[in-house]
Amino acid sequence: MGDTIGRLHSVQSLGAVDGPGLRYVVFLQGCPMRCAYCHNPDTWDAAGGEPVTLEALMAQIRRYRSYLLPHGGVTVPGGEPLAQPAFVAALFRQLRAEGFHTALDTAGAGSAEAAAQTLPHTDLVICDLKFPDEARFRQYCRGELSRTLAFLDQTAAAGVPVWLRQVIVPGLNDTADDVRALCRTARRWPNVQKIELLPFRRLCLGKYAQLGIPFPLADTPECPPETIAALEKIIKNDS
Ligand code: SF4
User: Fold this and answer.
1) For atom 7 of ligand 1, which residue has the closest CA?
2) At what angle are helices 134-141 and 145-158 packed, to 10 degrees?
3) pLDDT-based confidence at 16, cuts 50/70/90?
4) Which residues of 51-72 are buried (b: 16+ CB within 10 A; e: fewer)?
5) Which end is more exposed in the chain, N or C (fewer Cβ atoms within 10 Å of the end residue's Cβ)?
6) How far is CA 118 from CA 34, 93, 110, 223, in A?
7) For ligand 1, is residue 33 a contact (CB within 6 Å)?
8) Which atom of ligand 1 lies at the shortest distance from residue 141's CA?
9) Is the CB of 34 under 6 A from ligand 1?
């Protein structure tokens, strides 16, 4: 297992919102999408980050074993974790063998083969379903909604539970109709356990400035908590 190498952006040793219980969060490097509100543009470059061996990463994670078990585990976001399927599959296989719960935090922006490689070792998928239609998905994420939908089909076939997420951006996807569309889409898959709405924030502005990348939503205000509360009611009434 020591020979398997991934490219790591960073780790967070004890997260509380990325899956059940306390989580060790492994941010992998590389993402094929370019979401207008991305908080981690420094993960985009697949050649960036630091190489890490599976064994070295496992050694770090084991130090937190007593905090993470029995209720928590390890969550792998990116970037896009499906960009490194062999590494994620090997990591999850080893984690499970040692009793850790495994969660893949993804936009579903990987190949069908990448999903097939990782899902058999995944206990939970957290999937960001970014926009309700292909036009907005392409415009604001430079990706394909159909790819994410196909990925979610694969999670259903594999019987892996899913938490769906959507970042709510004022003026882009914050209407009642947008959230009703999200609920309708979510009903396609029996394995979706919940839908979470996250407010658009502008905390990443400094990071963009540092990297010299223009922030596409520089003029967009943050999403107020009242909007999220109102939209959550729609989800609740729909279920
Ligand atoms: S999928 Fe995630 S990491 Fe990739 S651009 Fe979008 S928000 Fe950023």
Assistant:
1) 38
2) 110
3) confident
4) ebebeebbeebeebeeebeeeb
5) C
6) 23, 9, 11, 33
7) yes
8) 6
9) yes
Model confidence pLDDT, tens digit, residues 46-98? 999 999 999 999 999 999 999 999 999 999 999 999 999 999 999 999 999 99
Q: Is 58 in the pocket of ligand 1 (CB under 6 A)?
A: no
Which residues neighbour 56 within 8 Å (Cβ) at sequence distance 6 or greater? none
Closest by alpha carbon to 193, among 103, 62, 70? 103
Nearest-atom number in ligand 1 for the CA of 41 is 8
Task: Look at the pTM and tell me if it is higher than 0.85.
Answer: yes
- The CATH number of domain 5-238, selected from 3.40.250.10, 3.40.50.1000, 3.40.50.720, 3.20.20.70: 3.20.20.70
70 C-alpha to ligand 1 centroid (Å): 30
**Distance in angstroms (rounded) separating the CA atoms of residues 51 and 207:** 22
Whose structure tokens read 């709405």? 197
Residue 238's alpha-carbon distances to 176, 187, 230, in angstroms, are 12, 10, 13
**pLDDT at 164 (0 to 100):** 98
